[in-house]
Amino acid sequence: MRIVVCLLLLISARVMAVPDFSGEDGYRLWQRYDVIDAALPAATLKVVGHTETHNIIRDEFRRAFANRVGQSRGTLLVQKITPELQARFNLQADVTAQLGDEGFILKRHGNDILITAKTDIGLLYGSYHLLRLVFIQQPLDSLSVLQNPKIQRRLLNHWDDLDRHTERGYAGESIFDWHRLPLDKDQRYYDYARANASIGINGMVPINVNANALMLTPMYLQKVKALADIVRPYGIKMYLSIKFSSPQQLDGLDTSDPLDPQVQKWWKHKAAEIYQLIPDFGGFLVKANSEGQPGPGDYGRTHAEGANMLASALKPHGGVVFWRAFVYANNPAKERSLQAYDEFVPLDGKFMDNVILQVKNGPIDFQPREPFSPLFGATPETPLAMELQITQEYLGFSTHLAYLGTLFEEAMDADTHVKGPGSTVAKVVDGSLYNHKLTGIAGVANTGMQRNWTGHIFAQSNWYAFGRLAWDHTLSAKQIANEWIKQTLTVQPEAVRQVEAIMMPSREYVVEYMTPLGLHHLMDSGHHYGPGPWVDNLGRADWNPVYYHRADKQGIGLDRTASGTDAVSQYAPYWQQKFANPETTPKELLLWFHHLPWDYQLENGETLWNELVSYYYRGVDGVSDMQQRWQQVKPYIDANQFRQVEMALSIQQQEAQWWRDASVLYFQTISERPIPTGLPKPAGSLKEFQSRKFPYAPGQG
Ligand code: GCV
């Protein structure tokens, strides 16, 4: 008998030990609709119209409320604007006149709520906005909202390859299964479109800017068409990355010279072929003469000549060219941060009016912190789109919790001062600074086939934040975090406060334990995983971390003032003066612009060395703080979501320490100064850190 009992106990102990991964796995993103038990804010839903988009709206309300009908006796009416509606809901003509093609109005009148717009897509955006208001628990009693997006083209750029590898992707294979398309229309495509539409994203580039010419073959264009047909009713347009050498690669032309009439003809035919299949095709995204990609420079032509050739092929169909300004190959003798500006500013005014330059937020490459790119504001005649990176290539992949709303906000709000104070990057991007009609913004996507889409529950917030800021760059990162938390995790007030306290400083922690005080590009080679400040043996000088930190016996940092590379001269006079002097340079960018002695005294009385080291420690402490706060919210978070984040945080803790210890030990060999008193000694040996290899790290280029 005793043996049987023991066995049973053993068995039940084993059963209990099996972890339970059921529950909210993250697939539903911020569209869970069950964080609170909300009801339709009216007794009846009336959607007037029968297009696919109208059906999506009906379906979305059904998903959100099932049969939970609200107390109010009124109607939730979703209908395109008419004079009768205007009169019934007291909408003044000057208000409705402000409605743009994607805009919407939400208006309460008595018991009724109206969602109205000029277009079906406006109705869809209005519906998603109302859902957001309900699920973040905003009162609807005196609802009166009019919104239009501030930026016209709001795109996700996927760096996904045709074989489903995702360059700089950390959430599994690409969601686009080109082999099975066009007939296999996976559920994910619809859910992807829903998620994007809910935050106002209206364009997608499904393949890598390191492009594959095959994409333009008839077989692949059929697949693109299938995707375009799926996403169209959600207001999403298809764009394609193209290979500049396609005429040669696909049809054996002798050249891809943009001034060659045969090449021009080839692109005109190709554009016509695409528009035949996809009448609302958005246009091309081009990475040319950058990191080995072909481009007009191969034929002695300028970027403007290359872009204009494509623009004239697209023009009759209404398409645009997003031409990337991420080029740094031209003159390796010139310091890398200078190169894009030097290349493109002289071309200002030479681009056709359906070309927009796509500029990364900073002058190097999506580092945890960079100053704004000096190109913003420097091309009055040429519209600029901003490219942000949602995927965390340099911010800990998908295992580090780094809320990028704060980074995106910093990038948008940066004041270029080109036309005096208030000349923000956001105003360059939304076209208001120089009166440009063509406006755009792109986010490098972090999606993949992992069940939770982004590899980390909190990485979903970066996708969300990108969309929300692209729609309205005046929203604050905090407000967006709050919205996301309430729709994704919990509405319990104390838990919301704790999660905000995790998210808001989280990107800063990453900056601190990876690249404090303006240091940058210190990651290991190729895969960009983990620290590699010692790397000095790569093919090009400007691929090596030592090129960027320049640590020597005297000090550390890259002198970009007039006595150094003079990158400061590319900024407006206001910033030239500030950046010229370490005392007026923002502390967080100090070593971006200056090479300073190890014993340089900072405003707080600390030496540069001591401050640098303490920042590395602060970052790691920040991760511990996030871990503690996460434990506190456990009762309010779904068990599956909780566990996913808990595990990722433990990886982050380990990796943050690795970054700190490897970096501090390495810089110490150069500074020859002790670890400041009160801080524990770094664990591990520099030699061991330097010997670490990760041949299978995900997302490699
Ligand atoms: C798509 C960085 C990344 C590359 C990326 C490139 C770009 O260099 O490491 O993977 O290539 O930026 O933006 O074109």
From TrEMBL:
One of its GO terms (molecular function) is hydrolase activity. It holds the Pfam family Glyco_hydro_67N. It comes from the Bacteria. Keywords: Carbohydrate metabolism, Glycosidase, Hydrolase, Polysaccharide degradation, Signal, Xylan degradation. Residues 1-17 form the signal peptide. Its EC number is 3.2.1.131. Residues 137-453 form the Glycosyl hydrolase family 67 catalytic domain. It catalyses: Hydrolysis of (1->2)-alpha-D-(4-O-methyl)glucuronosyl links in the main chain of hardwood xylans. Residues 454-678 form the Glycosyl hydrolase family 67 C-terminal domain. Residues 45-130 form the Alpha glucuronidase N-terminal domain. The keyword Hydrolase applies. It is an enzyme of class 3 (hydrolase). Homodimer. Belongs to the glycosyl hydrolase 67 family. PANTHER family: ALPHA-GLUCURONIDASE A (PTHR39207:SF1). This is Xylan alpha-1,2-glucuronidase.
